[in-house]
Amino acid sequence: MRNADPSQKPLTDTVRRALQQHVGANRDRIVRAWTETQFNRERLSRWQVAGVNGQESAYFEQAFVGPLLDLLTGWLATGEPRWCAVYRDERLRYAPHQASPSDKASFFGEILPVDEEAVLAGAHPSVREWLAQELSDLHAPLLQPRPNAVRLLGLGDCLMNEIRVFLPDSCRDWGFEADIRCMYFSAVVGRDISTAQVRDFLAEQPMDALAFSFLSYEGLPLYSALLREASSLGASELDQRVTAIVGLIRRFLTELRELTDAPFLVHNASGLPLTRVRRLLPLLGPLSVAHRRAIRCLNGAIADLVNHSTNTLLIDEAAVAGAKGYRSSMAPVVPQPKDAMFHTARFGEYLALDYADVLASYHALRKAKVLAVDFDNTLWEGVMGEGEVVQYHERQALLRRAKENGMLLVAVSKNDPEKIRWNEMSLAKEDFVLLKINWNLKVESIAAAAKQLDLGIDSFVLLDDNPAERELFRSQLPAVRVLDSTDPFTWRSVERLLHFPNTKDTEEARNRTELYRQQAQRQEALSGAFDYPAMMASLGLSIEFRRAAVSDLDRVTELVQRTNQFTTTTKRYARQQLQGFLKSDRHRLYVTKLADKFGSLGLVAVIIVEWRGDEAVFDSFVMSCRAMGFQFEQAVIRLVLDSNPDVHRWVGLFVPTDRNTPAASLFADSGFVRHGDYEWILERGTKDPILASWFAVTSD
């Protein structure tokens, strides 16, 4: 909790002086003890901590341990949060900082108690009590596994480290935890990075978002050369240089986009760091005319790249540096000891606020499938039932864009439906999958909507201006995310939602409202039926089963990467990998569409089969939840088997997660016999799955 942070608990000046004096008087002893604890090669090797090969313990003590203790002393003396933020991050320097939060917590669980005891040794009992509490509070965030944290991988140079210093506390201010990992490259020290490194990392540790600081602090050699030579470049050569730099960035992003649909946060150029002359002479502007021209040209091209890239958002370094001041941005956060490795500047602190704002939007909306929207004082100013109102057309247009990208809109308004003047609005009735315009409690309306649409309640987000309504949801339906429609953050978040993985600019997404409207009609049609076969037959169900084509890849990728419930192995194949299966001799990729008398449900199932010698393996069976309840999945298994009559032994893989329980019985219900922890076996002819009589089937 944020209020557990030591920066929130005031100490008197007298107590602070006593703590500082104790640590100062024992500095040499504490540094030696910390060096022994930290510089343990066996431990560092076991935790795969890099950076100590060839180092002597004396250098380690001088450059790391001594300054680390100085940071602690600075925190005890001032109580300023910046000191503890830098201290905590500096602890990561010789820790497995790319490891998972649980592994990092285990690492710190080994060394921090020993280090704390070294500080406490010999303290007067009254000082020891205060100091023990301060150390416990200071170290608590390092010992928390944070299993539900938003995971961010930052790629860049020292600026990403500066952001990492302050981002955890900034995110806690928003009410969630962040797990930040970094991979570094820099033209200054000749350290390069490739997409292969990132590919390997993501294969082991998927991330929620990736941040790219290609140009900050001279990250790319081409950018460093551009700044050095800016004054000698003509317009044509400047354009060529900018095209080359943006081309490198584009290729990097394109290669990684094939691996993940996570949001990309791409920095533009600020021109920092300042040259020595311009840093020290305030009468000179922070940037030369030539630098401003080059950065303006470069940032225009980067903005265009971001605007035309999928799931990509801009981190506007230039705007932040301009607003906060270039020289202020370069100022050190805390005084830096002469030999210290850290050199944290204020720019990272400023940018962390922008990052936290973006990640807060992701945290609020990452599970969203439905935006439940209030009307009065949300879509317009005023109460429509009482007379004239002022329409918020920009908000309505934004919601329509979200709908066109796959979000479902549900109207939840306490109103007389006859009093809603649709002709004044930018939204139409047809834009809403359900209209819950009545005098019922809104929690009742959304609970009913979740049942009608057959969606989890945690996929709903409420936009409402009324604090009492929002509080009612927090107490009665806490799984529903609630956002204040009067807060600009809410509408920034909806705008960003268009760049998150749960929205897609596909034909399927554009038709989703109609598909779910039909789903609600089906639920209503089935609600009074009791004879299951007759009930199914009354729906007029038809299956189209075939091998996948290139034209299916967008929808196939969407299903494979988005589906959490009916998926047998939760393998998140990238589009490139799925395209490879189309040409592979060892794989077959099948797709299935489902329709009924109400209309088509679209492409609802993807099946990946892999051949292992004489047997065929169901590598993945992924199905949209809207196809559940018809015995459709057993029918699809049968169709796959019938398409491969020469295969006599089939293996089904099921790897359980905390969310894919709906798929747990797929193979058992289809006649397979369990074999080991994850495999199910079917010998053809023993108990083949049944193709229910109520399905009409077409196949290639």
Structure, explained:
The structure is a single chain. With 700 residues, this protein is an alpha/beta fold. The chain folds into four domains: 1-144, Globin-like (Orthogonal Bundle), CATH 1.10.490; 148-366, 3-Layer(aba) Sandwich (Rossmann fold); 367-510, HAD superfamily/HAD-like (Rossmann fold); 531-699, Gcn5-related N-acetyltransferase (GNAT) (Aminopeptidase). It has 27 helices and 20 strands. Residues 1-8 have low confidence and may be disordered.
Multimer state: single chain
Residue-averaged pLDDT, rounded? Answer: 89
CATH architecture of the largest domain: 3-Layer(aba) Sandwich
- What's the gyration radius in Å? 29 Å
- Strand order of the biggest β-sheet: 18-19-17-16-15-14-13-20
- Residue fraction in strands: 15-25%
Q: pLDDT under 50 segments (min length 5)?
A: 1-8
Number of DSSP helical runs: 27
The dominant shape is: globular
Give the C-level CATH assignment of the largest domain: Alpha Beta
Number of distinct beta strands:
20
Count of spatially separate domains: 4
CATH-level-4 superfamily name of the largest domain: SGNH hydrolase
Largest sheet composition? 8 strands, mixed
> Helix share of residues?
40-55%
Derived from helix and strand composition plus strand pairing, the structural class reads alpha/beta
N-C termini distance:
58 Å
The name CATH uses for the topology of the largest domain is Rossmann fold
